[in-house]
Amino acid sequence: MLETFDKDREGVVLRIERSSIHDGEGLRTVVFLKGCPLRCQWCSTPESQSFQVERAGENTYGSRMTVGEVMREIRKDSLFYFISTGGLTLSGGEILAQPEFTLALLKNARMECINTAVETSFFASWEKIEPLLPHINTAYVDLKFFSSGLHQQYCGVKNQVILDNLLRTNQLEKCPRLVVRTPIIPGINDDPRELEDVGRFCARLNWLDHVELLPYHKLGTATYEKLGRPYLLGHVPTPAPEQMEACRNVVRRYVKTVR
After folding, report:
1. pLDDT tens digits, residue range 107-153?
2. How far apart are CA 29 and CA 41, in angstroms?
3. Are 54 and 122 in contact (CB under 8 A)?
């Protein structure tokens, strides 16, 4: 029987999804953690924002699980990881809001030779981020806006700590494969000047693998209704493919690989 590090530590898990192809390379098991300090107006998982298990009508969002319980679920898919070069992805919410739980899951996965990826905003102290990095293969970091004013307006917090943490990775002798993700929200952050600022900043990151521009979508609107919360960007359209490519071309002036 495999020994599990820190197996009795508890965290709040929103849900576990299997066989994802959108959260890293290969087939991934995605563990979504609950709790996020940001309040992005387009958040597709508003049920992940609260740090507590929530109930809305017949729906329950989240449950308390131990590291051992989560690892048992992850191991069920281990055969598919090695066939597809997939693995474990920790997502949220914000994984840095539960740093000890996140660290234990990453350590266990790496001890079992499972590829690890994280999806994070990097909105936390560097002291919470640095211990995780040796146990991560790929870090997908959201850079939703370069403009601090836009970040404050649409995410509820300023972004200086995010920018600082990304730049701190330049000081590391070894760093996970770094992918910066920016959602393209028409009329809000698709201005060429904003995209040029994103490109210039990303060009400064020594460990950057590539930049991903993600089209805005409204997949979470039904959940907002269940939670009794307004969806504030209902008027914003999904960008057309040619609009996305035009945005990529702006960032490509500064970063070689933009997807």
Report:
1. 999 999 999 999 999 999 999 999 999 999 999 999 999 999 999 99
2. 26
3. no
Residue spans per domain, the chain:
10-251
CATH of domain 10-251: 3.20.20.70
Taking alpha carbons only, the member of 183, 49, 28 closest to residue 118 is 28
Query: Which class for 112: exposed (0-12), middle (13-18), buried (19 or more C-beta within 10 A)?
Result: middle
DSSP-based three-state secondary structure for 13: strand
92 secondary structure, DSSP code:
S
Instruction: Tell me the chain's radius of gyration from C-alpha atoms.
Output: 18
pLDDT tens, residue by residue, 34-70: 999 999 999 999 999 999 999 988 999 999 999 999 9
Q: For residue 88, what are the CA distances in angstroms to 76, 116, 146, 213?
A: 11, 5, 29, 22
Q: Which amino acid is at 88?
A: L
The closest alpha carbon to 155, from 259, 237, 49, 13, belongs to 49
Tokens of 169: 């990775």
Smallest CA-to-CA distance from 176 within 12, 24, 13 is with 24
**AA letter at 152:** Q
Q: Are 10 and 65 in contact (CB under 8 A)?
A: yes
Model confidence pTM above 0.85:
yes
Nearest to 238 by CA among 23, 42, 38, 49: 42
